[in-house]
Design brief:
Length: 444
């Protein structure tokens, strides 16, 4: 990993936010507010060469976890990678994944900590409920592994900084699974924005909308999903204790204890690429989010949800730009992805990258289709990007720097929605607050 990444994370944070050192302390090594996590002998920093086989372990073999495992399995010959371990607490899923990955019983785990002890594993892929992301990622990096982490990065903002600090201290790469970041169109958009072809960038917009009359995330509950087949205590982890619930096991995205609904599951798909394209290398100044449960889609299909089925947010940045996002699980007509500039707009409809001049600037700005020939997103591209980044020892497309800034916006949006008020970010304390932080100027 680049030597610059060996500095303590808070030093990087100060530089990135442009604030002074007052009130900051060294990056923590231990997290006093968390249950004790297993410690590992710090592994030597292994540089993965062009011809080295990259060995993977997977934690969580639900829908996304199984998909990631099959992608890497299918990449075995072409990319010189190997699936060497899977961990799953639901017996039915564990056996199915073990068979697909062609693993022995010794390589199919129920306790992820046992898998982390395998020094041959280079990368851990985490695809679990959000409340497990932080402890698993931190322990995996402490054990010397690089991390592919499903979005959202974490369940809370504090947890995101714990992953950030650990990645910096242990010198490990992290790729968050927002696969739109590996769509070439967003990198082309970034070139256009950096070249000032839109003029001053004002704000961006996007959405992620679905319409499921049977209630979004009301996945089918299999008859095998019983307390005898699922280690319920292990699944709950740090979440509030409660009796076994197959509803919550399958449909956890509906409940605040484990996820954030639209805000955490869907909006990262828009925030990561938009912030990448806009080169927004800063934390949000404020977020205002509203919404609610407007339709009773759970009736007859599942227990009532806690998260919104309709919501929108405005995120403001100190350098000027804003991002507006809409989300719904009861109306699928979305808002067009768009970056607005003073002189021209950058439009992304139909997978394109289209420069459209504003009326007063039609003589100065040429309308032009700038769509790259290989435009399009996929999980395969995103996994391939991480493999390439590991071999080149450089940051992947959705690295820890972008991910922690996006998670700040996600967590602030959730806090704003649940408190029904605008939420602000304090870069000196790395915390949310109810009033503007003194280190930000509102007079832009």
């Amino acid at each position: 990993m680049d030597n610059n990444n060996k500095d303590l994370s808070r030093r990087d944070f100060i530089k990135a936010t442009g604030i002074g050192t007052a009130g900051l302390v060294s990056a923590p090594v231990l997290f006093d507010d968390e249950p004790a996590m297993r410690t590992y002998a710090q592994a030597k920093s292994k540089v993965i060469g062009a011809n080295d086989r990259i060995r993977y372990g997977f934690i969580g073999q639900g829908g996304m976890g199984f998909k990631h495992m099959t992608i890497i399995k299918d990449f075995t010959a072409a990319e010189n990678v190997e699936v060497v371990g899977i961990c799953e607490i639901f017996e039915k899923r564990r056996l199915a994944s073990q068979k697909r990955a062609e693993l022995t019983d010794a390589r199919a785990y129920t306790d992820y900590r046992k898998m982390l002890e395998d020094k041959d594993i280079d990368v851990i892929v985490i695809a679990t409920p959000d409340h497990w992301h932080m402890p698993m990622a931190v322990e995996a990096m402490e054990a010397g592994k690089h991390i592919y982490l499903e979005k959202p990065m974490t369940h809370t903002l504090d947890e995101a900084f714990k992953i950030y600090d650990t990645a910096k201290r242990t010198n490990r790469w992290v790729q968050v699974g927002s696969h739109g970041c590996s769509d070439p169109k967003w990198h082309k958009a970034r070139e256009i924005v950096k070249a000032n072809r839109l003029g001053k960038v004002l704000w961006a917009q996007g959405s992620y909308c679905r319409n499921n009359p049977k209630g979004e995330w009301n996945y089918k509950i299999e008859p095998e999903a019983t307390e005898q087949q699922i280690d319920w205590k292990a699944w709950l982890g740090s979440a509030p204790k409660r009796p076994f619930s197959a509803e919550r096991y399958y449909r956890w995205r509906k409940y605040w204890d484990y996820g954030n609904g639209i805000i955490g599951d869907l909006w990262p798909h828009r925030l990561h690429p938009l912030m990448l394209a806009m080169s927004l290398n800063e934390f949000p100044m404020s977020a205002s989010c509203m919404g609610g449960i407007l339709c009773d889609t759970d009736k007859g299909y599942g227990e009532p949800r806690e998260v919104a089925d309709t919501t929108m947010v405005m995120v403001k940045y100190a350098s000027g730009p804003m991002i507006y996002l809409a989300g719904s699980t009861v109306n699928e007509r979305g808002v067009e992805d768009l970056i607005r500039g003073q002189k021209a707009d950058l439009m992304f409809g139909g997978g394109k990258v289209q420069i459209t001049p504003e009326r007063p600037f039609v003589d100065e700005i040429e309308a032009k289709d700038e769509t790259p020939p290989d435009s399009g997103e996929s999980h395969q591209k995103h996994q391939k990007n991480f493999i390439d980044s590991l071999r080149a020892n450089k940051a992947p497309n959705c690295d820890i720097e972008l991910a922690v800034r996006v998670q700040a916006a996600v967590s602030m949006a959730e806090e704003s929605y649940r408190k029904n008020k605008t939420v602000f970010f304090d870069p000196a304390k790395r915390k949310m607050r109810d009033t503007p932080a003194p280190s930000y100027s509102l007079n832009l």
